[in-house]
Write a structure and sequence with these properties.
This protein is mostly helical. The chain contains 6 helices and no strands. Helix 1 packs across helix 2 and helix 4 packs across helix 5. The two termini are 25 Å apart.
């Protein structure tokens, strides 16, 4: 669902047949929050997609729900300290 933008808490809770408060409480008990879970999921998927040389960096950003390639590049640089193209060369 990330390709359509970052999901909201209400959508995620409904997909798991939970109430929003119940989901928030479960995440809190696990020591995290909803936005952190979305960010972690995007980071892990970005790493997986970057290993696939057939996908462009722009396509990966769109698949992960970023509105522009530059937004994806900024987020990826925040996660890893280097841009996605450099990470791909190093780990691809």
């Amino acid at each position: 669902r990330l390709a359509h933008g970052a999901p909201g808490l209400a959508d995620a809770a409904a997909a798991m047949n939970l109430g929003e408060r119940s989901l928030q409480q479960q995440l809190h008990d696990a020591g995290t929050g909803f936005r952190q879970c979305v960010d972690d999921t995007r980071r892990r998927l970005a790493e997986r997609h970057l290993r696939d040389a057939s996908l462009s960096i722009g396509d990966i950003g769109l698949r992960l729900g970023f509105s522009e390639q530059s937004a994806f590049q900024r987020a990826f640089s925040r996660w890893h300290g280097l841009p996605p193209a450099a990470w791909r060369r190093r780990h691809g």
